[in-house]
Amino acid sequence: MQAEQPIQQTCTHCLLSSADTEVISFNNDGVCSYCTGYEQTIRAFNKHADAPEVRLNRMVSDMKAKGQGQRYDCILGLSGGTDSTYLAWWAHQQGLRPLVVHMDNGWNSELAVKNIENICTRLGWDLHTHVIDWEEFRELQLAYLRAGVIDIEVLTDHAIYAVIYRLARKYNIKYTLNGFNYATEAIMPKGWTYNKRDYENIRDIYKKYGSGKKLKTYPHLGFSGALWYHLFLKIENVNVLNYLPYNKEEAKKIITAELGWRDYGGKHFESVFTKFYQIYILPGKFGVDKRKCHLSNLICSGQITREQALEELKMPLYDEAELRDEKQFVLKKFGLSETEFDAIMNGPVRKHEAFKTDKVLWQRYFKFIGLLNGCLKAIGLRRKS
Ligand SMILES: [Zn+2]
Question: What is the model's pTM?
Answer without folding.
Answer: 0.89
